[in-house]
Design a protein that fits this description.
The chain is α+β, with helices and mostly antiparallel strands and 242 residues long. It folds into two domains: 159 residues, Beta-Lactamase, CATH 3.30.450.40; 52 residues, no CATH class. Helices cover 40% and strands 17% of the residues. The protein contains eight helices and eight strands. The chain has a six-stranded antiparallel β-sheet. A two-stranded antiparallel ribbon has the order 7-8. The longest helix is centred in the middle third of the chain and has 35 residues.
Length: 242
């Protein structure tokens, strides 16, 4: 079996794909709707959204085929992720890259393939949005542009999913700050779950995404630095009078 080529940023690409936490997840209407549109616009009986993992391509959504994954070495999409433009194969039986793979030689007998890479803002091609036919086929330029637009919509949906996951994790961390916290009456240090004392800043930063900057509130400024407080007040009054 011929090995499929890999993009030059393969390690970083796989790491980026993992961040979306989408492999082997359940079907979702948003992605199913997009492949329906791809099938309708390109006038093909088969369409799917694939994600190219280390050794397989997995279908998040598919129409017209019952497979949910194939080996990466048998995948058209392994070639689609190599370049930013749509990969079009009008007759796979005449293309030496694909003529011998099971999807072409056997059932369902792919002949035509058009795949738009799913490229993130960072430039990682995670997979592709594909329109496929079991007979030779051609696309008009408007259909190609529409397939590209749908691919960008898929990436937007993936970004929303990633951000939602990150917000959920941040909220889970913040929950650890709820309830009673043992705080020293003198230095205001906080005791963690293992019995160690640390500053409030260190505790909050280790349990959330928050970071601290420091300043002096008006009451403490008046109490500890009265001259500076009076200077600030005078400056404020002068600014108000101008």
């Amino acid at each position: 079996m011929k090995k499929a080529p890999q993009p030059g940023n393969e390690a970083a690409r796989l790491k980026a794909l993992d961040q979306y936490r989408i492999l082997d997840t359940a079907p979702e209407r948003a992605f199913n709707d997009i492949i329906e549109l791809a099938s309708f616009i390109c006038k093909t009986p088969i369409a799917f959204m694939s994600l190219v993992a280390e050794d397989r391509q997995w279908f998040k959504a598919a129409k017209g085929i019952e497979l949910n994954q194939t080996p990466r070495d048998d995948a058209f999409c392994a070639y689609t992720i190599l370049k930013p433009e749509v990969l079009i194969v009008e007759d796979a039986a005449k293309d030496e890259r694909f003529a011998r793979i099971p999807l072409v030689k056997g059932h369902p007998g792919f002949r035509f393939y058009a795949g738009a890479p799913l490229v993130t803002r960072e430039g990682y091609a995670l997979g592709s949005l594909c329109a496929v036919d079991t007979r030779p086929h051609q696309l008009e330029e408007a259909q190609v542009r529409a397939l590209e637009a749908l691919a960008r919509t898929v990436v937007s949906e993936l970004e929303l999913r990633r951000v939602s996951n990150e917000l959920r994790e941040a909220a889970a961390k913040i929950k650890t700050l709820h309830g009673l916290l043992p705080i020293c009456s003198y230095c205001k240090g906080v005791r963690d779950d293992e019995g160690y004392w640390q500053s409030v800043e260190a505790y909050v930063e280790s349990h959330s995404e928050a970071h601290f900057t420091h300043g002096i509130c008006p009451s403490c400024l008046e109490k500890h630095y009265p001259e500076l407080a009076h200077q600030k007040q005078a400056a404020a009054r002068a600014a108000a009078d101008t």
